[in-house]
Amino acid sequence: MKVKFLSENSERSLKNKIRFVAASAKLSHFNGTLSELYNASQNHEENLKVIGRITRSGHKSILEHHYINLELSEVTPIVEQTLIGFRLPSFTIKSRRYVDFRKVGYYIPEFKNIDGSLHMENELLKKKYRRHMNYLFKFYSEMVDGGIIKEDARFILPYSFYSEIAMSVNAREFEKMINYLLYGEVSKIQELHDLGEAFFEIAKQHVPEIVEYIENYHPRLSSYDYHQVLDTYKVSTKVLKKPVLIDYTADADDVILETAVMGETQCNYDEAGRIITEAELEDPDFRAKYMDAIVKKQENRELEQVTFTWQLPISLSILTHLTRQRMHSLITPNFVPLWDFQNYIIPDSIKNSEFLDKYQRVIEKNMIIMSEFKNAGVVEEDLVYFYLGCQMCNVITTINGRELMWLSRLRGCNRAQWQIRQITNYMIEETRKVAPLLGRGLGPTCRVLRYCPEGKLSCGLIKEILAEEKKKE
Predict the structure, then answer these.
(1) What is the model's pTM?
(2) Which terminus of the chain has a smaller tally of CB atoms within 10 A, N or C?
(3) CA–CA separation, 43 and 28 (whole Å)
(4) For residue 205, what pLDDT is reported?
């Protein structure tokens, strides 16, 4: 694991960032403009004291003015999925759709017993682990060389492979991230705990105003052992065959339209309904036209007034495509306890190739090797690297209408990865059943907005759509 601080690395830069945070803290309590307060905040030690006084009273939002940029290399998808779960930082990740991953290397844990002590056969287990990982990467290489596209071959990659992440994060979120990595449930995974330590060292040097809160952090955990209660129930671990719409805002189309009317006219709810009813008498297409106008607005916040709750089946390879949608409430299963390795997906390109039988044999062998390690007493937190990209799980999310629209624009496009596109298109279909007017505004930009942002990479569908429309004219 390598973590590198990529923001300006000078004492002057750090003091200026702290100075800006201190001036921002003073803005709400002192006379003068921000510029005047910034110019008056010359004493670095005093600035730290000001920030401390404000943040200790619970007002930590001022820390969001301090932003840093980090490079993370030689980290696994375990790190990716954990960090991307934080909603406020910005991430760019090396794509497995386009980059050949056969020579990226992989993480090798120090295998431990359930009590946390080093396994007495650690070195032997590591040797066996290396042999197996090399076997998996070799098959990945065979598929790529055999004509399987990289975005489908990656389904056989283990979650031990190394990746790279560009991350930008503000100081407040960085503090939360560090505390979670050091003291949260994920801290039992050694790689994540080590990342927390690396982040903390960066904080000591470059984000000093949060160090006190990390050093004095005390997790407030419930003593209620719900794991033990839930373990008494025999629950099916079968992955869904298709997305399920669990719940949604009743009369979502009406809620959006009435909200828009109230926002425009400042009338009350009953009056908004009356206005829409009367407008529809004048023009039977009023509701459809108004929804179309709302969908095409630059700031269509009215769509955020409705929500849809889904349970979605998705593979580990594609999970980050969903997690990267920032404004929805996603619940994913923890990496431990380990999931049922029998739940996996086979891409069509592999189903219809000479590699199908071996693909399945490789997955079966991976299950066997993982079980051998588990039966040897290795703690499950060290076995998470046996997950393969093809592993399927059920996730739950509640997403508002506006974010659902953006999801449909990005992931409903023909250039989107095929599994996330299938999931998105099904979500669009189900939404249209319960909110038909909103549903008409969901889909890729070519179908809804009649343009394609992909340039030379366009699939060509926009030309077909425009040609059909021209014929109708």
Answers:
(1) 0.92
(2) C
(3) 19
(4) 96
